[in-house]
Write a structure and sequence with these properties.
Strand order of the largest sheet: 1-2
Number of domains: 1
Radius of gyration: 17 Å
GO molecular function: guanosine-3',5'-bis(diphosphate) 3'-diphosphatase activity
Organism: Candidatus Kaiserbacteria bacterium RIFOXYB1_FULL_46_14
Structural class: mainly alpha
InterPro entries: HD/PDEase_dom, MESH1
Oligomer: single chain
Order of helices and strands: HHHHHHEEHHHHH
Protein name: HD/PDEase domain-containing protein
CATH superfamily: Hypothetical protein af1432
């Protein structure tokens, strides 16, 4: 699937995220993540707006691009999908903790359209797959690049898995469940390696 509108989304995502990189070794341009998510979503839908939203799913969260600009450039459906996928960073002017952000994201997804859940599944599949592949043998580096509680991280993904399995009627859920199992095993290995160092 390729269209003028998808080309515009690719260009917008590339420009808006141009100075951002993904955590990992080596740090890759952020656009690589957006291509991976959109490419995955494309395997599970023929809807151009969903693919466009996949390319743009982080613009409101990570750039100065506004929801109004998004709607003007790509339409109401794309804006609604991206808004549903945007994790809040603060509430009442106060920065949210990692857990508070994840809880708010999950609460938003509970009310989100199915199309947004498809993008969320693809986003997390790519995140988990990259973590497992890049840090499989380097648990210490994982803990540096992704500080925080392993238990909170595992619980956050478990809650998301429960939601997606309950609400998402799309074949992507099979891929999500497979990668999520690998990710849980990886977190278990990281925890054991931490315990062995004590």
């Amino acid at each position: 699937m390729y269209s003028y509108r998808i080309e515009q989304a690719i260009r917008a995502a590339t420009v808006l995220h141009k100075d951002q990189v993904r955590r990992g070794v080596p740090p890759l341009p952020y656009i690589t993540h957006l291509f991976a998510v959109a490419w995955m979503v494309r395997d599970y839908t023929k809807d151009e707006n969903i693919v466009i939203a996949a390319f743009l799913h982080d613009v409101l969260e990570d750039t100065s691009y506004t929801a109004a600009e998004l709607e003007e450039d790509f339409g109401e459906q794309v804006r609604n999908l991206v808004v549903a996928l945007t994790e809040p960073k603060e509430k009442d002017g106060k920065a949210l903790t990692w857990k508070e952000r994840k809880d708010a994201y999950l609460a938003g997804l509970k009310k989100a359209p199915t199309e947004a859940l498809t993008i969320a599944a693809a986003d997390k599949i790519h995140n988990m797959r990259c973590i497992v592949e890049q840090y499989y043998d380097d648990h210490s580096r994982f803990l540096v690049d992704f500080p925080g509680s392993l238990e909170e991280r595992a619980l956050g993904y478990q809650d998301l898995s429960n939601l997606l399995n309950r609400q998402l009627d799309n074949a992507i859920i099979g891929e999500f469940n497979h990668v999520y199992t690998e990710y849980k095993n990886f977190l278990g290995n990281v925890k054991r390696s931490q315990e062995n160092k004590k």
